[in-house]
């Protein structure tokens, strides 16, 4: 990520209110093998969040390799290209939005760097999923929710970027260990993980791990384990014909009702609603 800081809003901006964004597209996209986009521009802003796999973006000549959890954006009329890899699938959440004829200082809010960070396990990931779920539901109430969720995403991303820039070197070292723990959980989600394993992996105590992991990712390590299992369930629900009971068993839940309650609590929609609302290409 670029070291450039966020561009401060002008002093008078504190008293300004802007037109809320209008979401013109929000869906989960499964890229076909060797899919890509060659040199296009859009009339809207676009968020692209990697759910699974990898893709290479080129935005105004800058190449950005994106993997699981990475979020990027580009602005209207900004030239961009997308390339996938033969050996890797690519599944992403794609959201297009604009602000009508009233300009909104998006770059001042998010900064000039089109790579916005990695949000695997972060609240931003949950908000993005909720947005695409509500986008495919009829009615003005869901439309209003989409606008609110998008504004919350913008705010969360801006705050996260500011926090990253304010971290000291020591804080960065601890954050690196938290990322190590997060990746370990993601790689071993299909079995029981003990606190002792995480202590041996990081050299930190159980309570300190819980405290710092929650500060870094907004949840405890075992709440993150639940999130990873649910993300895997979403993938199975979209890509296979397995029943909900079979999927629950695959991701570590012996009881389908426990899985259903957990999914709705974490994702804001039932598993059946999520699967039926997805648009795939």
Automatic annotation (TrEMBL):
Task: Tell me which residues make up the HTH araC/xylS-type domain.
Answer: 179-277
Keyword entries, A-Z = Cytoplasm, DNA-binding, Transcription, Transcription regulation
Q: Which PANTHER family match?
A: HTH-TYPE TRANSCRIPTIONAL ACTIVATOR RHAS, HTH-TYPE TRANSCRIPTIONAL ACTIVATOR RHAS-RELATED
Pfam families, from UniProt?
AraC_binding, HTH_18
The molecule here is called Helix-turn-helix domain-containing protein
Q: Which InterPro entries match?
A: AraC-bd (IPR003313), AraC_XylS_family_regulators (IPR050204), Homeodomain-like_sf (IPR009057), HTH-like (IPR037923), HTH_AraC (IPR018060), RmlC-like_jellyroll (IPR014710)
Q: Which organism is it from?
A: Paenibacillus glycinis
Checking SUPFAM superfamilies in the record gives: Homeodomain-like (SSF46689), Regulatory protein AraC (SSF51215)
């Amino acid at each position: 990520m670029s070291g450039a800081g966020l561009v401060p809003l002008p002093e008078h901006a504190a008293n300004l209110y802007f037109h809320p964004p209008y979401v013109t597209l929000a869906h989960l996209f499964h890229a076909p093998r060797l899919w890509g986009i060659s040199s296009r521009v859009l009339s809207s802003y676009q968020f692209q969040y990697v759910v699974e796999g990898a893709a290479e973006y080129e935005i105004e000549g800058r190449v950005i390799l994106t993997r699981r959890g990475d979020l990027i954006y580009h602005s209207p009329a900004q030239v961009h290209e997308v390339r996938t890899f033969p050996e890797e699938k690519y599944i992403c959440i794609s959201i297009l939005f604009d602000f009508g004829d009233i300009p909104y200082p998006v770059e001042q809010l998010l900064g000039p760097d089109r790579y916005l960070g990695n949000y695997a396990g972060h609240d931003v990931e949950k908000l993005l999923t909720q947005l695409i779920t509500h986008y495919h539901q009829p009615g003005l109430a869901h439309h209003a929710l989409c606008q609110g969720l998008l504004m919350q995403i913008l705010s969360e991303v801006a705050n996260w970027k500011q926090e990253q820039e304010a971290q000291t070197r020591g804080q960065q070292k601890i954050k690196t260990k938290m990322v190590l723990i997060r990746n370990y959980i993601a790689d071993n989600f299909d079995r029981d993980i003990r606190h002792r394993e995480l202590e041996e992996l990081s050299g930190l105590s159980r309570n300190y791990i819980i405290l710092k992991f929650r500060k870094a990712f907004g949840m405890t390590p075992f709440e993150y384990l639940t999130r990873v299992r649910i993300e895997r369930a979403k993938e199975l629900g979209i890509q296979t014909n397995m029943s909900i009971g079979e999927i629950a068993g695959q991701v570590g839940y012996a009881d389908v009702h426990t899985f259903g309650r957990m999914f709705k609590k974490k994702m804001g929609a039932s598993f059946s609603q999520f699967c039926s609302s997805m648009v795939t290409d």
